[in-house]
Amino acid sequence: MRNVGKLFARMSASPNKNCKRLFTVCIEGNIGSGKTTFLNNFKANDNMLVLQEPVELWRDVGGTNLLEKMYKDPVRYGCLFQSYVQLTMLQLHTQKTNLPFKVMERSVYSARCFIENMKRTKMLEKVEIDILEQWHEWCIQRADIQTDLIVYLRTSPEVVYERMRTRARKEEDCVSLEYLRQVHDVHDDWLYNRSLFSVPAPVMVLDANKSVSEMMAEFEKCRRSIFENRDKLIMENKNMQKRRNVEPMSPLSPTKISVGSV
């Protein structure tokens, strides 16, 4: 519990004014969309903090594999798991670094997608959804989780289903194609159609249905775009925040960009 208390204190603290402005990129997408492969492309850069989704923490919560329990019995463990996901993602968001770039696999923002899916499929009780949404809203409003760019690895559910079967994580044995379609629909509504909750930063959409060799070329272009257009993207994000403060936020407002447009 002391660690949780320290985390909450750190989340609410102002950033060190002597540090260079941190540029944070969140990589979003369905299960098996290539997020880890994308992050691996950035690990050779010594000016980036690269943070993978904390799957190992979810697999060992005091000796319990919470990820596996959630997949096998989502009605029983869904609320507990999503609450822990939000805590561990906050730990990544608030991890300090003196480097100018931070690249994260998923985010507190996309945790809302999985809550939304449980809401749509009536997997959880209304009171559980209410608690998760209040917890999520507190994170968004009170924590220092500034995000400057979202990279959405957009895939078809059928493609990621085959990838998931190939990589054969034991926890994912019971993940169905229908579930992947549900997760895809929520991500698409959020980041592509912009018809769900608001988007916190400009979005770069990549077609991640391509082969590994094709995607590596796309990842390299994306990496260069981030390096070369850091200031432009920060300015775009500031403009988005100003529009949010002046007028009601439309779900269609945030900018959607391609690799070659920045």
From TrEMBL:
Domain Deoxynucleoside kinase: 25-233
Regions of compositional bias (Polar residues) in chain numbering: 252-262
GO cellular component, one term: mitochondrion
Keywords assigned: Kinase, Transferase
Domain of life assignment: Eukaryota
An example Gene Ontology molecular-function term: deoxynucleoside kinase activity
InterPro entries per the UniProt record, alphabetical: Deoxyribonucleoside_kinase, DNK_dom, P-loop_NTPase
Region ranges (Disordered): 239-262
PANTHER family, A to Z: DEOXYNUCLEOSIDE KINASE, THYMIDINE KINASE 2, MITOCHONDRIAL
Protein name per its UniProtKB record: Deoxynucleoside kinase isoform X2
